[in-house]
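Can't paste images in this forum, so I'm doing it all in text. The chain is below; anyone willing to post the predicted structure tokens underneath?
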Amino acid sequence: MSNVTEAAANAAEHAGPTAGEYIVHHLTHLNSTGHPQTSIVDFSVINLDTLFWSISLGLLTIFILWLAARKATSGVPGRFQGFIELMVEMVADQAKGIIHSEESRKFVAPMALTVFIWVFLMNAMDFIPVDLIPLLWQTASGDHHAYMRVVATADLNAALGMSLGVLLLCLYYNVKIKGAGGWIHELFTAPFGSHPALYPVNFAMQLIEFAAKTISHGMRLFGNMYAGELVFMLIALLGAAWGASGATGPMLFVGHVLAGSIWAIFHILIVVLQAFIFMMLALVYIGQAHEGH
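Text version of the structure:
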């Protein structure tokens, strides 16, 4: 009986993960605890893979912009310089239409361009085959159960972290443009008026407004990228099932290729659009900080 049990255990070990185990594995972060952690937000755990990929792609963004600035010429621009100039003009036009302070735009417009390229690069990591980098990481670490998630924006911690950064900029410009006293006065008198009885209601509404903007800003990016990442995993499972499905195997493989190609093309729009929306909302929220109620 013990031999039968041991043989069954060995067979189960070498049979490979089930569909559920496969998805859970790919949704688990490499974190500071060294143990599987699938909860979305836990302040006691640091997701090391999210930190690595977000910081690395942030440095890559800075390098790209530095390279464009270093190679900029007054003559006929090359393709790379022309593309960067097109991006700069697009962001500058958007910032000019939203933020009317020329002094503020000197910082906010370059910040918005950096955010757009940074978020785009993090989103674009979703185009890498879902098993490639985790497999390379498993090979390098020697751990069959090693975890590695590469789409930083599909981690709510990263998305909310960036939206909190935008919130801090909004608070900064509220104080800079209106003065500390003017902004505090606005907190207690807008939107319903300056009657003392309305001070608590106004202040509560202001807090709700700031919280709603920040949470929705991060959640929108996270939700779209998390869903896209999950769809790619499901498509990968469709391709993995072809070998064990008899006569329907080739059909599953063809479906995997077609679905993967169609979703990848559609996902290009999502990747670009989500980066643009995140940038535009950052501009809108900072622009609102320049205006009084």
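The two ends are 78 Å apart (CA to CA). Residues 17-289 form one domain.
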